[in-house]
Amino acid sequence: QVQLMESGGGLVQPGSSVGLFCAASGVEFKSYVMSWFRQAPGKGRELVASFTDKGTPGYQDFVRGRAIILGDNVRKAVHLQMTSLKPEDTAVYYCHIRNLHTGYEYWGQGTQVTVSS
Asked: Which of 2, 11, 12, 47 has a beta carbon 3.0–4.6 Å from 106's, enabling a disulfide?
């Protein structure tokens, strides 16, 4: 049973930074990509950043240059650090892992990030 445990987030000031951490357990497949998605109120879920089992990071344009995603392929964990936060970054952030062989995917429960003064 794959489970994703998320931590981090909370209420932060505009212009500040936030760290989000996710650790997966029960992962027995070796080819995967771990990602952070987010969903703002009234909007669809969108990809933020990803990290493959080969150690390749990827970023969406709206966070490029102000986010870093680091992965630990032994622990099956990812850490997303976002800086220069804007009110529009307010969303529930979800950790995600996808098995690249089967396409099966799993989601964390989400952690709230609120950017407000």
From this structure: 2
Task: Quote the tokens at residue 46.
Answer: 């969108």
Amino acid at 79: H
pLDDT digits (tens, 9 = 90+) for 50-78: 999 999 999 999 999 999 999 998 899 99
How do residues 73-116 score in pLDDT, each as one tens digit?
889 999 999 999 999 999 999 999 999 999 999 999 999 999 99
Number of neighbours of residue 91 by Cβ within 10 angstroms: 22
Map residue 15 onto helix, strand or coil: coil
CA distance 77 to 23: 4
